[in-house]
Amino acid sequence: MMQLISTVAALVGKLLDMGAFGARLMLNPKFVAEAMSAIAENCDAPVSVKCRIGVDDHDSYSELCDFVYKVASGSPTRHFIVHARKALLNGISPARKSKIPPLKYEYFFGLLRDFPSLQFTMNGGVTCINEVDAAIQCGAHGVMVGRFAYNKPWRTLAFVDSSIYGASSINVSRRQVLEQFQLYGDSVLGMYGPNKPNIRQVIKNKVNMY
């Protein structure tokens, strides 16, 4: 574990020197491959890369394929989580970056076709369980649901186990969930000092439980 921490710290130092973080690293697949190799050497778990389909004007399908090929061939990475929008590096907020560029799911499904030995999880714009199921039926190895699950947790997650994994329904109500969460919330309020966390921070993602 200490070796892994040391490796990650060294990588962060290189990133600081390069002035490159997040989606900008798609412009440097060689470094991404080196970083994933270094992490994999000191980690027992498989490594994966989460990326966009492109960055600014570097948004062609061929450039995306080049990124995936160079990372996969230069490291043990065999799993990519692909947000089907390109990233804009012009200073707009993360929330707007997740809405303004158009979704191009055809890029994602092209990767499934052109890299059959790799695994790809789809991300971006998924708003219901039916869309998750449709993506899996079309070959996606997984689906990552982010903002919608956070903003509408009950609508998004209440029936995942039965709808996607075929598990038996446990018939838990929202009231029961919130009652259990209250016990948890009471136990962590002020855990790290006065108002750290405070009640607003604890219940923020439970406001939209519908």
TrEMBL record:
Single GO molecular function: tRNA binding
Keyword Nucleotide-binding assigned: no
Signal peptide range in chain numbering: none
Keyword Oxidoreductase: no
Superkingdom of the organism of origin: Eukaryota
InterPro entries according to UniProt: Aldolase_TIM, DUS-like_FMN-bd, DusA
Segments forming domain DUS-like FMN-binding: 19-204
Entry keywords, A to Z: NADP, RNA-binding, tRNA-binding
Protein name as it appears in the record: DUS-like FMN-binding domain-containing protein
Organism this protein belongs to: Stephania yunnanensis
